[in-house]
User: What shape does this take?
Amino acid sequence: MTDRSAPRDSHPSVTFDRDRKSRIGLEEAVLAEPKTVDQIAAIVGDAHAEGRRLLLTRLLPAQLDGLPADLRGALDYCPLSRTAILGALPPQRDDPAVALVSAGTSDAGPAAEARRVLAYSGLAATEIADVGVAGLWRLLAREEQLRSMQVVIVFAGMDAALPSVVAGLVPGLVIAVPTSVGYGVAAGGRAALDSVLSSCAPGVLVTNIDNGYGAACAALRFASAQAAGRAD
Assistant: This one.
């Protein structure tokens, strides 16, 4: 039987999953890039009217500019990560300790996406940037700090050697995010993806290319499992 009092979506092609967090601990996020401005406006407008927070990923500046002024003004937009947040961030906790490690400044976009997704769910992260293996001393100078982290998300393009090196140094969960950075045969991140998938370091988890959102969600699932284990 349909609950007529439940909120309804104002766009005919949208069925927003309002109960996802109660099932899996993660809210539905809106992948904005393939959507029309009308669809995005309806989704944001519904959330605003219901007093819900909302996370949008891969929101293009042109899509943001196309939204009504009141909705556009209600969003906290980060052009580097292409994420937008409706509503306030929760208090930030630092347990488990999470590090975002990037090989170069060119990997900043996916790393920023992961940071924003974590922050939306109330999990702080330590950022360690520009420590790629072409200058290995930069990474080794942060080894002690990295070994104290329970989750290390590593962003690297080109040959994507960094996740394997990190996973050989630290005991925590290592999540590799291959990025689309590189020349020629790097093939928009495919070489990096193949590299981390074939890593000789044991237990490295791998996301899709540039998928900072997916890496952050994996870290959040780890955090939820850890909290549940402590509750038991």
Remarks:
- DSSP finds ten helices and nine strands in the chain.
- The first helix runs from residue 20 to 24.
- The radius of gyration is 19 Å.
- The chain has a mean pLDDT of 94.
